[in-house]
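Practice problem: Probable RNA 2'-phosphotransferase
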Amino acid sequence: MLSEKENTRISKFLSLVLRHQPEHINLSLNTNGWAKVEELITLSANAGVVFSFDELKHIVETNNKKRFAFNEDCTLIRASQGHSVAIDSGYTAQEPPEVLYHGTAIKNLDSILANGLNKGNRLHVHLSSDKATAVNVGSRHGKPVVLEVMALQMHKDGFHFYLSDNKVWLTDSVPVKYLKMPAL
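Answer key — structure tokens:
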């Protein structure tokens, strides 16, 4: 099996080619973001990133954020969310819980207070259903801060929410009026 270091290296590579730059290895994604597993393994090896199907399966099954998913017969793979390439995730709009959370770095608060939460170069804004996950996400970018999103009110006001395969809530944007700022 792969070492933890190698597992992380391949996982980051998979994020690159399945979420952002499939052209990096000439990988074809279908309209829903799925790639053929055999093609991914072959093209990755041609690019110097070598892994077997069993190693890929291990990475998918053990990724703590469930970033990747197989179809039922494991012939196709895709990133669960976080794409910057245009895909149709196939997710159906759902009613969210009353409150969702967004973790960010405190250095981003001024911009968020001025502009709300925007998807930037991704297809969606990512939200979590629990504060602990939001803190973890925010910690990756600096001193973390967790914003409450009045998701159910947004939904009632016509905004769409989607729940990804790995339980990340997705929406197009969050205007400032739906954000509850933490006491700092």
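Discussion: The two ends are 45 Å apart (CA to CA). Students who identified this feature from the tokens alone can consider the problem solved.
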